[in-house]
TrEMBL record:
Coiled coil: none annotated. It comes from the Bacteria. Residues 133-156 are annotated as: Disordered. Residues 139-156 have a biased composition (Basic and acidic residues). Keywords: DNA-binding. This is MarR family transcriptional regulator. It holds the Pfam family MarR. The lineage of its organism: Bacteria, Bacillati, Bacillota, Bacilli, Bacillales.
Length: 156
């Protein structure tokens, strides 16, 4: 799992670079495509990033054409971050060869085996979501903060 995870991150970094964005921006665009329109606050909760970092991230994604800001139709005070579907096609094109190779690997397995693999991977998504929640955000007295301010942005 660790080897595969590292290779996934490297692939995503290279894909992001080819699109002229950074890894975090590309994965956030992917989250927005998965979740649909959400507020910046909701995005901060999903990613574990600070609201200030998310604002800068959204600015970069908007400048690159991946998202647009729209007023919430139910509450004019709120802004919704909306993924740009046309740009998602560009991302999809990068992942198409990977999808083809994945299908080729899957052909070696029976439907029952694929069901088992799918169940395992789905459960692992939940494991990673729990683990991500546990490590995201500064914790009190953990040495990550100076002068009461988070230093996480240096690594994002």
């Amino acid at each position: 799992m660790r080897k595969m995870s590292t290779r996934i991150v490297l692939f995503q970094q290279n894909a992001a670079h080819s699109l002229g964005v950074i890894h975090t921006d590309l994965k956030t665009a992917d989250i927005l495509n998965e979740k649909g329109p959400i507020t910046a606050g909701e995005l901060a909760k999903l990613t574990g990033l600070t609201t200030g970092t998310v604002t800068a991230l959204i600015d970069r994604l908007e400048q690159a054409g991946f998202v647009r800001r729209e007023k919430d139709p139910h509450d004019g005070r709120r802004v919704i971050i909306v993924p740009v579907k046309e740009k998602q096609k560009t991302i999809g094109a990068l992942y198409k060869p990977l999808g083809t190779m994945t299908r080729e690997v899957c052909e070696a397995y029976t439907p029952e085996q694929l069901d088992l693999i799918n169940t395992f991977l789905s459960r692992m998504v939940g494991v990673f979501e729990q683990a991500n929640s546990a490590v995201s955000g500064p914790k009190p007295d953990d040495g990550c903060c100076k002068n009461g301010r988070s230093e996480r942005h240096e690594y994002e």
